[in-house]
Specification:
Layout (H helix, E strand, L loop, with lengths): L21 E6 L4 H11 L5 E8 L4 H11 L3 E4 L5 H12 L6 E4 L3 H6 L5 E4 L7 H9 L3 E4 L2 H6 L1 H7 L5 E3 L2 H10 L7 E8 L17 H4 L9 H9 L1 H14 L6 E5 L5 E7 L4 E5 L5 H9 L22 E2 L7 H11 L3 H17 L5 H15 L10 H19 L26
Parallel strand pairs: 1-2, 1-5, 2-3, 3-4, 5-6, 6-7, 8-9
Antiparallel strand pairs: 8-10, 9-12, 10-11
Helix pairs in contact: 2-3, 10-14, 11-13, 14-15, 14-16, 15-16
């Protein structure tokens, strides 16, 4: 690679040592990433101290329990209507002890992200994580990023604020690339290889996917996840998003980022170097390992996640991606190269089309066909203009409305929730497959 400035995520940078426990703020604490992060912190009280928690508000009892066990200063919820239930749950947990500060409203997570701490773990799902990501970066916090959407839809905004190496990725694929990249210099890297399980439809042709059902798509062979994330794995949209994310995190051109199907999900991603060697990062499927990298780097946390039992035989397989049956990765490369608001349009249109498929209003193949049409109608973003948060939100609003129109859904009321944006979706893994 060239000698251009260090990328957003760079394992070679020297991180300032932290005396005592590293102070952490966890966004999305009652979701999948958040609950596993809390487990990791509770098992390592000498290494980590949580200062603040934020969540959507739908699981007040769990949030209050986390706050009491971690003894946090601040608890935040996005839903102001959740405050009475949260206060009641905190009273039950704390008894006569003083309660933590309570923040509420759409900006609560953003306020937590800018609060005094060392590292912010952004485990929020969806593009609503963009404002907290920007706030954490602007405040100078190390950002452990599990919210891929904020980087994908707001790439130029994130890159404008982030210092080199300020972001440590928590996606299993990008945590794998991050670790493998530590083995060589930037000039040594030939390509990044992102692995995909292939989802429930691996090996099927496009014609064979025409009549698959909601139940078929939700039967993932490797991971137990929420419905939206599982459908994204079935269409391989999640891999397309990860290709964009890899490009932004590591400053690698799209033509040097490859996707390969690996059904076992043991190898989380690989880096091919110019001498012909390839380094693969492999663990049993468990998100606590990537979370530990995000919170503890450059130190490793002993027993953060299970290791392989090498006394047992196993088979690891790799297959090329069928780009005809799964055009999502190619479309994601296209919108990534267009940049600007195009990735936000792609992501928002896909969320609406997945909802239409789950509701029975759109066939499986219709998801990507509709997203492709919305992206085409959006066209090429204007060059030479500075992207703003308002631009991203406007593009998302248009894309959602247009996708719903093409999918035959009724227009959404302003306050109607989306499946992917609630912490009631009790997934046991993120889009790792």
């Amino acid at each position: 690679m060239s000698d251009s400035p260090a990328p957003l995520a760079d394992p070679h940078l020297v991180f300032d040592p932290v005396e005592g426990a590293r102070e952490i703020a966890i966004l999305g604490s009652t979701g999948s990433i958040g609950t596993q992060a809390v487990d990791l912190v509770l098992r390592n009280p000498d290494r980590f101290k949580v200062t603040a928690l934020s969540a959507n508000g739908g699981r007040a009892g769990l949030l209050a329990e986390q706050a009491r066990r971690l003894r946090v200063r601040t608890v935040a919820v996005a839903q102001e209507s959740a405050v009475p239930a949260l206060r009641e749950a905190l009273d039950a947990q704390y008894g006569s002890d003083p309660l933590p500060e309570i923040l509420a409203g759409p900006e609560a997570a953003t306020e937590v992200a800018a609060s005094a701490c060392h590292t912010v773990l952004n485990g929020i799902t969806g593009s609503i994580g963009l404002a907290p990501t920007l706030a954490a970066l602007e405040a100078g916090r190390t950002l452990a990023l599990a919210n891929k959407e904020s980087l994908i839809v707001g790439g130029p905004l994130v890159k404008a604020l982030a210092k080199p190496g300020q972001i440590i990725p928590v996606d299993s694929e990008h945590a794998a690339l991050f670790q493998a990249l530590a083995a060589g210099t930037r000039a040594d890297v030939r390509k990044l290889v992102v692995t995909a399980s292939g989802g429930p439809f691996r090996g099927r042709t496009k014609a064979e996917l025409a009549d698959v059902t909601r139940e078929d798509a939700l039967a993932h062979p490797t991971w137990a996840m929420g419905p939206v994330i599982t459908v994204n794995s079935a269409t391989l949209v999640n891999k397309g998003l990860e290709v964009i994310e890899a490009h932004l995190l590591y400053d690698i051109p799209f033509e040097r980022i490859e996707v390969v199907v690996h059904p076992q999900s043991y190898v989380h991603s690989m880096v091919e170097f110019t001498d012909g060697s390839t380094l693969a990062q492999a663990t049993p499927p468990d998100m606590r390992g990537p979370i530990a990298i995000g919170l503890g780097w450059p130190e490793r946390i002993p027993d953060a996640a299970p290791a392989f039992d090498w006394t047992k035989a196993s088979t690891w397989e790799f297959f090329p991606l069928d780009t005809e049956a799964f055009p999502s990765v190619g479309l994601a490369r296209h919108v990534g190269e267009l940049a600007g608001t195009a990735p936000a349009v792609f992501n928002a249109a896909n969320e609406e089309c997945v909802e239409a498929f789950l509701a029975g209003s759109l066939p499986f193949n219709g998801i990507m066909e509709t997203v492709t049409e919305v992206v085409a109608e959006h066209g090429t973003p204007a060059a030479g203009t500075s992207l703003t948060v308002a631009d991203v939100l406007d593009a998302e609003t248009w894309a959602r409305a247009r996708a719903r129109e093409l999918a035959g859904l009724t227009p959404r009321t302003p306050d109607a929730p989306r499946t992917s944006r609630t912490d009631n979706d009790r997934t046991t893994a993120e889009a790792r497959a």
